[in-house]
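Dear colleagues,

As part of the handover before I leave the project, I'm documenting each prediction I ran so the next person doesn't have to rerun anything. This entry is a single chain, and its sequence is reproduced below.
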Amino acid sequence: MNLYYDRGGNPIRLMRWATLMEDHRYREVAFAQGEEACVSTVWIGIDHRIFGDGPPLIYETMVFGGKHNGYCERYPTVGAARQGHARICQMVFDPQPELTQQTEGEHQ
């Protein structure tokens, strides 16, 4: 089982992951800032799939500030991460009915 992956989901070695982590442009997928909160989506490159089978979860969207502070979702692809970012931005900046924390398998 591999732990480190590039943005394309290809296995990489620890030192390559560390080099990529130093590049802010490589890590950042999307960012949105509001008055009370921000939403950040980044490549994390470490598989955060804890349970079940499926592709590695190597992207993360997190909310900082506001009533959704700390809300987090992880994804296997950059496309899924961008979709998740847009949906979470809508939740944070244009409040609709509350989203519930989803399990990692729901982001495939």
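The CA atoms of residues 28 and 54 lie 23 Å apart. The mean pLDDT is 89.

All the best with the project,
I.
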